[in-house]
Amino acid sequence: MKIGQLAKRTECQVETIRYWEKEGLIPAPYRSEGNYRIYNDQHLSRILFIRNCRSLDMSLHEIRTLLALKDQPSESCHDINDLVDSHIEHVVKRIQALTSLEQDLRSLRQRCETESDIEHCGILEGLSSEKPHTEPDTDTHISGLHGH
Length: 148
Prior knowledge:
- This protein has six helices and two strands; from the N terminus they run ααββαααα.
- With about 150 residues, it is mainly alpha-helical.
């Protein structure tokens, strides 16, 4: 099948498929005489696997690791369990950071319970204060697993 057909069957953008191919997540397809990429069921299966991983917010590094492990079917799945456990820890940290962010936003919103003119807006005053409510979480991924 051509890339457009593969994209339609996997509900994935053509550009994404090309990117994953460039990143080595899917093998290079056969090229027709007209230089069209020709994909097969192996490509389809691999793209669906990658999409499922991405829907779980896994990084390309994690996906690459899982694909390499998947290609060794007789090995122990210990490394896969460890990877998923680490990803769960990452998700828990993100949930905690988002909960803290929600609390900060609610606190900020309470500074302006009644509407007034912009000059006296409690939200703008709060955002202009010297100290941020909480430090922004710039590391939203676990070191080493998510490309940091």
